[in-house]
């Protein structure tokens, strides 16, 4: 049992003892409630102010037993309360309550299941811009989670109760980054059962695990070893291309000048219904359009100048931060002109 719940239970029991003492003095001595309560308090706390009124023999016997019962208990309560303050348990307890409240208010957030090397890298990239919550089973990592400043839950991500606590039904996406492929498969099945609409992105170490995860309902399956090997091979075969990607596109690059972004064309945007010549994105916002993802899921790479932009399209573009903000303004609902 934690220190704070124990202190709360002890305080409730103290209230009960005071109520019992008050009732005893009223029944035996016939005192008023305030007098009986006052006598109970000074007896339990051993202040020693003396009897407020002479006690009957029955009252004295009751007081003897009351002191033996209550005084030691009050001392134990004081010790437990002091221990909770010294160890920081009270602050931690109320901190967890505040965190629980914040978790209950999350909407369209990302759940990161697993805070190993992959989970930590994902949180480092997304944590500053996107609402997320971390689920981690290993209690030894709780200190690092507290220091990270992110919302987190200590528990088994494969359990329904933990996922519900993380707001699985309100979440936008789930990243299954647990160490074992079997756990990721089970987590994917559980998540899809609780929220069939949630996007599940999961890691897999083997081809067999990838196939099982796809059958379990995972929307995207990533093999970190294949990606790492592909990147190393690209460095060897095409170093110039790799340098460009590292310096301009890859997240986390210190010298990044360009960013790769996806921007959705909202209903009422000036871009809706225009072809690429009319939109003239390169002149208006100085961005490079790489592809367009249609609402049907079709990806149109390097579209022709006569290709029409429709509402709901997702534009995949490359450009500087200010240029991307320019395009975001144009793509918003109610935009009336190109900036």
Walk me through this protein's architecture.
Strand 4 (173-176), helix 8 (181-194) and strand 5 (199-203) form a beta-alpha-beta unit. The protein folds into three domains: 3-86, Helix Hairpins (Orthogonal Bundle); 106-222, NAD(P)-binding Rossmann-like Domain (Rossmann fold), CATH 3.40.50.720; 259-331, Regulator of K+ conductance, C-terminal domain (Alpha-Beta Plaits), CATH 3.30.70.1450. It starts with a helix and ends in an 8-residue tail after the last helix. Strands 3-2-1-4-5-6 form a six-stranded parallel β-sheet, with helices on both faces. The protein has 14 helices and ten strands. It has helices at 3-29, 33-44, 57-86, 89-105, 117-126, 142-148, 160-165, 181-194, 207-216, 224-237, 239-248, 276-279, 281-284, 321-331, and strands at 110-113, 132-136, 151-154, 173-176, 199-203, 220-222, 259-264, 288-293, 299-301, 314-319. The chain is α/β, with parallel strands linked by helices and 339 residues long.
Question: Can you describe this structure in just a few lines?
Answer:
The chain contains 14 helices and ten strands. It has 339 residues and is of the alpha/beta class.
């Amino acid at each position: 049992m934690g220190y704070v719940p124990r202190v709360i239970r002890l305080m409730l029991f103290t209230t009960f003892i005071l109520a019992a003492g008050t009732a005893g003095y009223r029944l035996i001595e016939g005192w008023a409630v305030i007098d009986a309560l006052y006598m109970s308090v000074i007896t339990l706390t051993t202040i020693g102010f003396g009897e407020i009124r002479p006690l009957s023999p029955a009252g004295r016997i009751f007081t003897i037993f009351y002191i033996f019962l209550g005084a030691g208990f009050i001392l134990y309560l004081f010790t437990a309360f002091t221990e909770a303050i010294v160890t920081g348990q009270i602050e931690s307890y109320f901190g967890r309550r505040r965190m629980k409240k914040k978790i209950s208010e999350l909407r369209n957030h990302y759940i990161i299941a697993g805070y190993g090397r992959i989970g930590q890298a994902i949180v480092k990239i997304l944590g500053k811009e996107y609402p997320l919550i971390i689920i981690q089973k290993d209690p030894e990592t709780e200190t690092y989670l507290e220091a990270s400043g992110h919302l987190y839950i200590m528990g088994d991500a494969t359990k329904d109760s933990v996922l519900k606590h993380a707001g699985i039904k309100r979440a936008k996406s789930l990243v299954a980054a647990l160490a074992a492929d079997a756990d990721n498969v089970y987590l994917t099945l559980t998540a899809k059962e609780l929220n069939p609409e949630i996007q599940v992105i999961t890691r897999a170490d083997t081809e067999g695990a990838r196939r099982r995860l796809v059958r379990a309902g995972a929307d995207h399956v990533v093999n970190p070893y294949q990606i790492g090997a592909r990147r190393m091979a690209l460095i060897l075969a095409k170093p110039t291309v790799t340098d460009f990607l590292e310096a301009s596109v890859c997240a986390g690059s210190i010298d990044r000048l360009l960013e790769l972004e996806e921007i959705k064309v909202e209903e009422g945007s000036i871009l809706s219904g225009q072809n690429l010549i009319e939109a003239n994105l390169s002149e208006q916002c100085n961005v490079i359009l790489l592809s367009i993802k249609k609402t049907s899921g079709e990806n149109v790479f390097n579209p022709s100048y006569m290709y029409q932009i429709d509402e709901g399209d997702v534009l995949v573009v490359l450009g500087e931060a200010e240029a991307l903000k320019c395009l975001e303004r144009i793509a918003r609902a109610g935009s009336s002109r190109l900036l």
